[in-house]
Design goal:
The chain is built from 3 helices and 3 strands. It has 113 residues and is an alpha+beta fold.
Length: 113
């Protein structure tokens, strides 16, 4: 990425009690960036789903929310990290599928801001 990171938050996720903190951070950061109400709720939903998946499948993880600026647009990058066992079926897929999915996910946030 060519844009500078202006704001970053890391939210540890280990149990359902951490879900509300993740939602609150997503809502406040996306509103502060300037997303409209609908986009704020959509971003909050994405973060809620990622956090829920961390609790259900990985047990421990971290969500990282990062304000980004790129090509004159401001957006939010959301990363979900864990040390879980992974998903066995994904290991049989072509690496180009991951690239396409990652490019789509990375391009989405800046284009909505």
């Amino acid at each position: 990425m060519t844009g500078a990171t202006l704001v970053q938050e890391a939210i540890p996720i280990s149990d359902v009690g951490d879900l509300s903190a993740a939602r609150l951070m997503a809502r406040s950061m996306s509103a502060a960036i300037g997303f409209d109400k609908r986009a704020v709720e959509e971003i909050t939903l994405v973060v809620s789903e990622l956090a829920t998946n961390l609790v259900k499948h990985a047990k421990n993880g971290v969500l990282r929310l990062r304000r980004i600026e790129e090509a004159g647009k401001t957006g939010i990058q959301i990363d979900s990290e864990d040390q879980g066992p992974g998903i066995p079926m994904w290991s049989r897929l072509s690496p180009t599928i991951f690239l396409r999915r990652g490019v789509w996910a990375a391009a989405w946030a800046p284009s909505t801001g």
